[in-house]
Write a structure and sequence with these properties.
Blueprint (H helix, E strand, L loop, with lengths): L1 H30 L10 H9 L4 E4 L6 H11 L3 E5 L3 H13 L4 E4 L5 H14 L4 E4 L7 H8 L3 E6 L19 H6 L6 E6 L4 H10 L6 E4 L7 E7 L3 H14 L4 E5 L3 H13 L4 E4 L5 H12 L5 E4 L12 E6 L6 H8 L9 E7 L1 H13 L9 H23 L4 H8 L12 H4 L4 E3 L1 H17 L6 H8 L28 H13 L3 E4 L4 E4 L14 E3 L9 H9 L8 H8 L11 H21 L9 H10 L4 H5 L6 H20 L1
Parallel strand pairs: 1-6, 1-7, 2-4, 2-5, 3-4, 5-6, 8-13, 9-11, 9-12, 10-11, 12-13
Antiparallel strand pairs: 14-17, 15-16
The structure holds adenosine-5'-diphosphate and magnesium ion.
Magnesium ion binds next to helix 3.
Length: 664
């Protein structure tokens, strides 16, 4: 009875304490920060920090992560350190806090030693500051550690915490030494890690590498309902640049950012826009600091509506009324894309994010990944492999975004671990119907090829080489001691297609996790869903792809009708069969024709029965039929790959086809 009463009383005390805490938080939000309400996630994060618990806040760009530690620090005794890699923004942050009446300062390498010494000694002698911004590298400095040991440090906020993740774009080695720094302090402060990068890998890396203690993890939705997602695949640089200029002209008078892959491209696009009458500036890391600051200011203040920039532009920049973000190239990951595109519409008003991409963007990135870490002697070969694998996975996720036919908003959400069922109704995929091509049979042939390559080659096979073999062309080889591809079952299995189209289907298979690119040589292997492909209910349809040649819209739309994609391209076929009059495998050009006929018979049958072609007869068996031309089932039974079951099922049909071919 007494126990009951006591526990009720202590519960009431806790409740009263919580109520008081929330009241103070709300009051400060209104009076000091001038905001009417907390944004999603802020209240929970601040509240746990005040309870003394470590937190990990994963909030999208613009969600208001800074407020979490700024407001918490006001309600905590002692000091708050904010670790951030963004030295150039420290000044702004300190100034805006000072305007709110919160004494703050920063120490970083842009200051003179005298200046930073003065800040540290002012802090020590008369508690001049409540919040101190620190670059992560500073935590290694013995003088700074001595200083920190004498400060009542209560909160250590780690902004852009994804920088601790070794596999991310923004890895900063100094972030790894944060736990060492904390260990040297007489009292462990509460640690608040904040980031906009939401993948599970990064999240786990942050918790582990920063030694967070049983953190409260707050992930707020990555859905940005005011953003409309668009994609457009282009077939040439010219087409792409023209489309981008048109797009910008259609948004005349609005602020926007164009993200480019190279410095040269930022200048080219800025020039093209100025020629078209839109004021635009280029921005990249190759410009001197003064020019960069001027251009950033011209854009943020609204004097110049458009900035064409590399990814050097934007982290931490707070311009609320960016109405559109265009990507003039596919970046290297969906994280990077979302982060950059997410700079549109921070004020909550409708804004557009458009990705203009070409297959070539991905080709370039794949080459880059293949060379990644080559010059870094500190990496072990295993590390290098892991780095490349991560980069590959991230790149292919973006590629899957480009290729998907699902709602783009939902695709992004799913990648960041959120499930949405209803479509957004506004993205490219929700608003346009694109002609689809059924590539179920082709996908199965490709998987058979992957399977065969895994069996025959110790390291597997590259994507381009596989496509070449499937179309019945010979991959170029350094010498002729390589494998005898012509004897493969898969050789020529898709001879009616172009190499490019085969690669497109391979990419779709990668995007769907049926196939994956792995290993030291970035080769194609079975993916987690590989075996689904041979299930009867498997089907794969893809969007029609513009051809690589030609640029004008007129010729393009005509091409869409007379398209060769996944159809019989007579010119390709002609080239194919006359490749130097060479005989393929052991059979003559004459038999080649029968072989092709038998293959089309098999193709039709496979389609009817909804099974992979190779499940009927392999190419090797069809070649043997073409060479020996059996006219009875008994003769056919002699051939390799014709067992009693297959003979009973398909023998008659194929014998009949061979007979009528011979009679012709
Ligand atoms: P990020 O999460 O990208 O670090 P910031 O902390 O820079 O975002 O905040 C983005 C903008 O949102 C800032 O202008 C900030 O003042 C504003 N903001 C933060 N919290 C609120 C709030 N509760 N209500 C209104 N505006 C807010
Ligand atoms: Mg921020």
């Amino acid at each position: 009875m007494r126990d009951d009463q006591q526990s009720r009383q202590s519960q009431q005390k806790v409740d009263a304490h919580q109520r008081l805490k929330l009241r103070y938080m709300n009051e400060l939000l209104h009076t000091q920060f001038g905001f009417s309400a907390f944004r999603p996630g802020q209240k929970e994060l601040i509240s746990h920090i005040l309870d003394g618990r470590d937190v990990l806040g994963i909030l999208p760009t613009g969600a208001g992560k800074s407020l979490c530690y700024e407001l918490a620090s006001r309600l905590l005794p002692g000091m708050t350190f904010v670790i951030t890699p963004l030295i150039s923004l420290m000044q702004d942050q300190v100034e805006s806090l000072s305007r709110l009446g919160i004494p703050a300062a920063f120490v970083n390498s842009s200051q003179s030693v005298d200046e930073s010494d003065r800040i540290l000694s002012d802090t020590l002698t008369h508690h001049a500051y409540k919040i101190l911004y620190v670059a992560p590298e500073r935590l290694d400095n013995a003088q700074f550690v001595r200083f920190a040991r004498h400060i009542p440090l209560r909160l250590l906020a780690i902004d852009e915490a994804h920088c601790v993740s070794q596999w991310g774009q923004d890895f900063r080695p100094a972030y790894l030494r944060i736990p060492d720094f904390v260990d040297q302090l007489p009292h462990r402060p509460v640690i608040a890690a904040l980031t906009a990068t939401a993948t599970v890998n990064t999240r786990n890396d942050i918790i582990r590498q920063l030694h967070l203690h049983d953190p409260f993890v707050q992930v707020t939705t990555f859905d940005r309902p005011n953003l409309t997602w668009k994609i457009r695949q282009c077939s040439s640089k010219k087409e792409r640049d023209e489309a981008i200029v048109d797009d910008v002209l259609a948004h005349r008078g609005q602020s926007g950012i164009i993200y480019c892959a190279t410095r040269q491209r930022t200048q080219d696009l800025a020039d093209a826009l100025n020629d078209a009458g839109v004021k635009a500036l280029a921005y990249h890391a190759g410009l001197d600091a003064k020019t960069r600051a001027e251009r950033q200011d011209a854009f943020v203040s609204g004097r110049i509506p458009v900035i064409a920039a590399t990814s050097a532009f934007g982290m931490g920049i707070d311009k609320p009324d960016v109405r559109w973000v265009i990507h003039a190239n596919a970046p290297e990951s969906l994280e990077e894309y979302y982060q950059e595109a997410g700079r549109a519409g921070r004020d909550g008003k409708p804004s557009e994010c458009t990705l203009y991409w070409m297959e070539n963007d991905f080709r370039t990135s794949r080459h880059f990944i293949a060379a990644a870490g080559r010059d870094n002697d500190e990496l072990t070969p295993e590390d290098r492999l892991r780095v490349r694998q991560r980069m590959t996975n991230r790149l292919e996720a973006l590629h899957a975004y480009c290729l998907t036919m699902h709602c783009l908003r939902n695709t992004i959400m799913a990648y960041f671990g959120e499930k949405k069922t209803e479509r957004c109704g506004r993205c490219t995929n929700c608003t346009t119907t694109v002609p689809l091509v059924d590539v179920t049979v082709q996908a199965r042939e490709i998987c058979a090829g992957v399977d065969e390559a895994q069996e025959r080659l110790p390291y597997g096979i590259g994507r381009a080489k596989l496509a070449t073999i499937l179309t019945g062309r010979m991959p170029e080889m350094a010498d002729d001691s390589g494998p005898d591809y012509a004897s493969w079952d898969s050789y020529g299995a898709l001879s009616e297609m172009s190499v490019r189209d085969v690669k497109t289907v391979i990419d779709r298979l990668i995007a769907g996790d049926y196939v994956q690119i792995t290993g030291r040589y970035a080769t194609v292997h079975a993916g987690p869903r590989f075996h689904d492909v041979s299930q009867a209910n498997f089907s794969l349809r893809i969007r029609q792809v513009p051809s690589d040649h030609g640029t004008s819209h007129v010729s393009r739309s005509r091409r869409l009708h007379s398209r060769t994609l996944f159809g019989m391209n007579s010119s390709v076929r002609a080239k194919n069969t006359t490749s130097g009059g060479r005989t393929v495998g052991a059979i003559s050009a004459d038999n080649e024709e029968l072989f092709k006929h038998l293959r089309s018979v098999r193709y039709a049958l496979a389609k009817k029965k909804n099974v992979p072609s190779f499940a009927i007869f392999t190419n090797a068996t069809l070649r043997a039929m073409a060479a020996h031309q059996p006219t009875s089932t008994q003769e056919m039974a002699e051939l390799p790959g014709v067992g009693p079951v297959k003979l009973a099922q398909y023998g008659d049909l194929f014998v009949k086809e061979i007979r009528s071919y011979r009679n012709k």
